[in-house]
Amino acid sequence: MSGQMQRYKESLSETPGPILMKHMPSISIDYRGLSAYAKDKGIEPAALSKREKDSFCKAK
Fold first, then answer.
1. Residues 12-22, buried b or exposed e (16+ Cβ, 10 A)?
2. pTM of the entire predicted model
3. Euclidean distance between CA atoms 14 and 23, whole angstroms
Protein backbone atom coordinates (compact mmCIF):
# COMPACT_ATOMS: atom_id res chain seq x y z
CA MET A 1 0.00 0.00 0.00
CA SER A 2 1.41 3.39 -0.94
CA GLY A 3 1.98 6.05 1.69
CA GLN A 4 -0.69 8.24 0.18
CA MET A 5 -3.31 5.46 0.38
CA GLN A 6 -2.30 4.69 3.96
CA ARG A 7 -2.72 8.36 4.97
CA TYR A 8 -6.10 8.40 3.20
CA LYS A 9 -7.33 5.34 5.12
CA GLU A 10 -6.06 6.81 8.39
CA SER A 11 -7.89 10.06 7.73
CA LEU A 12 -11.09 8.11 6.97
CA SER A 13 -10.85 6.27 10.28
CA GLU A 14 -10.49 9.61 12.13
CA THR A 15 -13.35 11.29 10.26
CA PRO A 16 -16.56 11.50 12.30
CA GLY A 17 -19.74 10.00 10.90
CA PRO A 18 -22.56 11.99 9.37
CA ILE A 19 -24.71 14.28 11.49
CA LEU A 20 -28.26 12.98 11.73
CA MET A 21 -31.11 15.41 11.06
CA LYS A 22 -32.63 14.66 14.46
CA HIS A 23 -29.46 16.07 16.06
CA MET A 24 -29.58 19.30 14.05
CA PRO A 25 -31.11 22.37 15.69
CA SER A 26 -34.48 23.40 14.31
CA ILE A 27 -34.17 26.92 12.87
CA SER A 28 -35.94 29.10 10.37
CA ILE A 29 -34.02 31.44 8.05
CA ASP A 30 -35.61 34.41 6.29
CA TYR A 31 -33.61 34.20 3.05
CA ARG A 32 -35.75 36.75 1.27
CA GLY A 33 -35.25 39.29 4.06
CA LEU A 34 -31.53 38.53 4.24
CA SER A 35 -31.11 39.05 0.50
CA ALA A 36 -33.13 42.29 0.55
CA TYR A 37 -31.11 43.61 3.48
CA ALA A 38 -27.81 42.86 1.71
CA LYS A 39 -29.10 44.43 -1.52
CA ASP A 40 -30.08 47.60 0.36
CA LYS A 41 -26.54 47.79 1.74
CA GLY A 42 -25.13 47.20 -1.76
CA ILE A 43 -23.23 44.01 -0.86
CA GLU A 44 -23.55 40.28 -1.32
CA PRO A 45 -25.24 38.30 1.50
CA ALA A 46 -21.97 36.43 2.14
CA ALA A 47 -20.27 39.75 2.96
CA LEU A 48 -22.65 40.47 5.86
CA SER A 49 -21.29 40.07 9.37
CA LYS A 50 -22.25 37.04 11.43
CA ARG A 51 -24.36 39.25 13.68
CA GLU A 52 -26.27 40.62 10.69
CA LYS A 53 -26.85 37.13 9.28
CA ASP A 54 -27.91 35.78 12.67
CA SER A 55 -30.62 38.45 12.92
CA PHE A 56 -32.46 36.60 10.11
CA CYS A 57 -32.28 33.18 11.88
CA LYS A 58 -34.89 32.16 14.41
CA ALA A 59 -35.18 29.01 16.52
CA LYS A 60 -38.40 27.08 16.00
1. eeeeeeeeeee
2. 0.62
3. 20
